[in-house]
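User: Can you model how 2-phosphoglycolic acid sits in this protein?
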Amino acid sequence: MEILIRDSLESGAKVGARVVKKIIKSNNRTVLGLATGDTPLRMYHELIRMNESGELSFKNCTTFNLDEYVGLSREDERSYFYYMMSNLFGHVDIDKKNVYLPDGNAEDLREACRKYEQQIKDAGGIDLQVLGIGGNGHIGFNEPTGSFTSRTWVKILSEQTIQDNSMYFDKQEEVPRHVVTMGIATIMESRHCLLLANGAKKADAIRKMIEGPISASCPASILQMHPRVTIVLDEEAAYLLTFKDHYKWVEKNKLDWQQF
Ligand code: PGA
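Assistant: Here's the modeled complex, given as structure tokens:
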């Protein structure tokens, strides 16, 4: 795992955006896996800035989002479709017909999940998957103790996640119990993962993910088995790491082409 620790949210967002830019520039067509939530917002702002300044184009990109709530319409401002339109897609030159999110409103959810997996395959697989992490170690909406071999499917949110996400809803009871999420196996097939995390409330999950045993009780810990993961942390999210100084040492000694 490549661990990059930054002392400000801005510099973390910038290095994340440079990872995305490098991948887009090194492919004729790029398939991005994208995440929602609070964490990637600053990185999306930076990508919008790069797009506006002509530094980066999304014209040759196809995107697949990690997850979506079941039962919220695309026009609902709490849906992840709405989030992606207002925080990224609506501001960059991406062709909207190349934008995919799981359909949480499909009449046949099971069929929609199978179709999503097929669409990812048909696009050639994901070149770079952007990830956040839950305070409980989830990636996408793959909650603790779920299978490491899971595929895109309907999942039930844990009570902690419902509580964590209730700030986006008027009442906790309004948070949907059900979601469609890429599975852990879907995420693990992407060629490169970029996980972003900030703040002390993520520190325990980050320690378990990077330095703990690989265990379904911290789903993100499976990323230890992924051949190419870049993790961008602020100092608070990194503060429980035993080998923090080592990660900084490694970064300082990287060869030019290894740097972002
Ligand atoms: P957050 O969510 O970015 O809003 O903290 C991350 C996640 O739950 O995966």
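A couple of observations from the model: The longest strand covers residues 229-234. The mean pLDDT is 97.
User: Helpful, thanks.
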